[in-house]
């Protein structure tokens, strides 16, 4: 087998999860150091590596076998992935790693190509073995393995230190879409995505607002997140409409107080004590900073709620993701009683699983 | 009126000076420049001759007054007019319905009724003014006449003009039949009347649909009529060339005839796919029948067969939805097949497919019979009207909803199932990498399913479309694949069979598909004849 590898440095940065210490979100951070350089997702790398079809098939058979051997072990253990899902992920890994993924398609299992057929790949064969081992043995999230997540119609780069955007969160963009269709004035205003992570919501919202209309400011406390979000914003050529700022929640937005037309956020909302019981992909690999919402998970939601009252202009729209029914109801009740008169039209929207996931409303 | 054709035409000779002057000039392929030269040459030859031979001139340009008179007098009853027919012996097997019915009597129109040749856009006005002109050679030979002559059809390589002409005439007949020619004319009339209404464009969507259908029918009729005209011209040329002893012209004409024969043979196939949705892309759905793992394994073999078939045909194939079986195979799967005429071909596969084999999954090596059902759904393009779907009528679910979701769960599983509550129709997709894409894919499937339901509903209302997908019962067994004790694949609708199941399972399905399509369009339906 002939194959050359990535330089050691870049390889090790792909392979090793980054654990960043938990930072108190309330503490403002001033970071003047060189921003971290985001990694390039597997599918975006050049197909610079060669192997033969037979070597690749060996890897594929091994990987399939690994996936099958999991059965429902992870599912029973901590609601992790089962074999079916791992097989699907393996297919996606092949799609991302090979220049011509169809070479491994069952349709070509016959005599179409002989064993010596050269195959172009975006990672060397050794790395493919390592990556799949990490997926199965270390439970490294698939999205970190391939360095990207497909979210709505976007492909966002993600890496250790950045929360992988969840499918549920896609709905916030739809809620914004509904809101700006109802009130076109909102489309032209300034929006904020707080705790942007990969930049998913900021990019999604900017594309909903449309060209030449409103602008979005995305903030995050994590320098890695800011770097990755900025990178994703540039990938979608939105740098003129989305600016990414480092800092806690509203801190970078002091100069636009009372001017926001809209505010979206998927803040940490999991109660601290629940974190360790989560599936290994989340608890062992994703940044705690993006998950832990304090004792009852409401710390940041309440903080955002208070901030929204001062940052939004009258008629401004907000949409927040929560842990589910309990938090959503608590939040609506908090707004309608404790912050009486600050908001109107508060509403709870469900995700596709029927969980009361989102709280929306307008600044009075 | 009880005159055989020949006698009749001689009776009307005195009236012939009334004929329109334009009969044989504007025909043939406009893109074929050489053809124009050829036509010119022919016209001059004919003119030259006609100066010498008045009677030839007359019969060459004769108007088929017979048709014209009947058109005006008996249009409502012409099907019933019992007219004796000269030497009525019908050749090709596809003609069997005439043979059965004749017994010396036959509706003259089944054989000879002619449509005027539409060379202007007011075709229907032309038609209703009853200036029906029939394409015929200088000595009165018509396309139907050629068929009636029962000339032996030889291989293409034989340079026999009669053989070529007979083959072409039969193709024309077959194409007309496949196009439901007889129904096209009244349909065109209705559409033209609609197009003439001043309020037509009050409903632009409907207007667009009408004008599209009108244009499409016009196009088909023009094309067939052009073929008829071309055939007649070539025959005239050959006859004239012989009389003039112009061997160069004769061989040139013969070549032209052969080219026409080849060209029209291809059109026969195209005419098989003349249905309104035939050109669409489609979804193919395979569902395992009762019988557990054995059937699920069979279902995945069937799905694989279609994937290969579609790829071999050059269609794009994407898996939309796939529910794996517990041990092997699939419970259900949907693929999207992208490409022109994907639906036209694939619709022939709707029904239950039966497998008989010694199961590799059975340690006791017993023989098993399994079933898989196939459904095919057209994906209507932009030109079609779609069923409006209200968001409020939809129930959208994460497929494997469970657990707390949100930040608790990191899963690449983003399957979506959409239920259209009023109809109970569901669609799901879990193959895409984002929930949004899964939802959009599932919505596309749902839209197509609802569109298909609507098409079927309208087909039931509209008796004209009796021959539609509704005839094919989803559950009816259409084909058997026997691997043991003998090896054979047999289609129960057409009796088409193949003794090599492996090639069929590798996607070699065209033989089955084409034989079914031609059988279903060419079957003995007198009402749909010509």
From TrEMBL, chain A:
Which Pfam family is one of those matched by this entry? PrmA
User: What InterPro entries does the database record attribute to this sequence?
Assistant: DNA_methylase_N6_adenine_CS (IPR002052), HemK-like (IPR004556), RF_glutamine_MTase_cyano (IPR052663), SAM-dependent_MTases_sf (IPR029063)
Native source species: Handroanthus impetiginosus
As one GO molecular function, the record gives:
peptide chain release factor N(5)-glutamine methyltransferase activity
* EC number from the UniProt entry: 2.1.1.297
Q: Does the keyword rRNA processing apply?
A: no
Listed A to Z, the keywords are:
Methyltransferase, S-adenosyl-L-methionine, Transferase
Is S-adenosyl-L-methionine there in the keyword field?
A: yes
GO BP terms, alphabetized: methylation
Q: What is this protein called?
A: Putative methyltransferase
Tell me which PANTHER family the record gives. PTHR47441, RELEASE FACTOR GLUTAMINE METHYLTRANSFERASE (PTHR47441:SF3)
Q: Under which main EC class is this enzyme filed? A: transferase
Kindly give the NCBIfam families that the UniProt entry links to this protein.
Answer: hemK_fam
Automatic annotation (TrEMBL), chain B:
> What are the alphabetically sorted keywords of the record?
Protein biosynthesis
InterPro entries (UniProt xref): PCRF, Pep_chain_release_fac_I, Pep_chain_release_fac_I_sf, PrfB
Domain Prokaryotic-type class I peptide chain release factors, chain residue ranges per copy: 400-416
A cellular component annotation (GO) from this entry: cytoplasm
From the UniProt record, which GO molecular function terms apply?
translation release factor activity, codon specific
Q: Reply yes or no: does the keyword Protein biosynthesis apply.
A: yes
- Any Pfam family matching the protein: RF-1
Entry similarity comment:
Belongs to the prokaryotic/mitochondrial release factor family.
* HAMAP family with a match to the protein in the record: Rel_fac_2
Q: What PANTHER family does this protein map onto?
A: CLASS I PEPTIDE CHAIN RELEASE FACTOR, PEPTIDE CHAIN RELEASE FACTOR 2
Q: What is this protein called?
A: Mitochondrial polypeptide chain release factor
According to its UniProt entry, this protein's organism is Handroanthus impetiginosus
